[in-house]
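Researcher: Please predict.
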Amino acid sequence: MFQNITESAEAQENTKINKMNLIMREFLKARNLVLFVLTLVMSMLSIEEEIAPFGLAMVAATLSSGVPVFGVILAGAIGTLVGNGVAAFLNFVLSSIIYFALVLIFKPKVAVEERNELLKTGKKLFLAVFLVSFFQNIRGIVLTYDVFMALVSGALTYVFYKIFVNRTSCH
């Protein structure tokens, strides 16, 4: 009887080790490492040192195309912090949190097989970036400029998301 318990415990441990090895093998594929480095470099870029849509667009694109997201999030966060400073990093983190909350709360649509996107999360990305940018730019009176810049930030991130999702597909 005790032998059966120890054998099942060993089998469970071996299953855990095999799962961990499979996850690490998937994480360390050359294709994924290239995406991590590309995300790191691209997230260091910004437009007029005000809008940094590239890192978050890569995170959303990899989530939509079935690539391991953890490495991309880490690379995007490090690149945004190094290239654009603490304010852009906090903007990236807050946008990411809202984006993932929206993805978890409202189930994303599953795309058609012929498309590169496995999950359609672009609208959620636009909304997350818009909300963070809008509330970040409000200083007292709400100006049309603030609303416009929030819309531009969301639109730019969405456009780059669409570009990246067509390049990061797993097919």
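Model: The longest strand covers residues 109-110.
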